[in-house]
Amino acid sequence: QVHLVESGGGLVQPGGSLRLSCAASGSIFSINAMDWYRQAPGKQRELVATLNSGGSTNYADSVKGRFTISRDNAKNTVYLQMNSLKPEDTAVYYCNAIIAVTPGKFYSYWGQGTQVTVSS
Question: Are strands 77-82 and 18-26 parallel, antiparallel or unpaired?
């Protein structure tokens, strides 16, 4: 069993910052990519940021320069530092990880989501 648990969401004013965390636990052999997605009401889930095992990152155009994804491999944890937040960043943020519980067999796991609301 593998579990992803997100934390750090909340209510913040426009221009503010939040830091999301996602910790993976369970029978983990190795972790490949760890990503953040978000889903706003009435919209499809979209990819926000990715970080692969080699350290390469990729960001949605809408968050470039404002969000930073990072990872602590020792803690199996991925972070999303969100600065200069805008009302349009309001969404439920989900962590996704590609994890192998046995060598070479990778599966996709999702966290339960954490709400981020940007409002004055």
Answer: antiparallel
Query: pLDDT band at 100, cuts 50/70/90?
Result: very high
Burial of 30 (0-12, 13-18, 19+ CB in 10 A): middle
- Give the mean model confidence (pLDDT) for residues 59-66: 98
Does residue 73 sit in helix, strand or coil?
helix
Tell me the C-alpha distance between 103 and 87, whole Å. 42
Contact assessment for residue 62 and residue 118, using Cβ atoms and an 8 Å cutoff: no
CA separation, residue 112 to residues 8, 38, 93 (Å)? 13, 12, 9
Average pLDDT over residues 39-58: 95
pLDDT band for position 118 (50/70/90)? very high
**Which three-class secondary structure state does DSSP give residue 17?**
coil
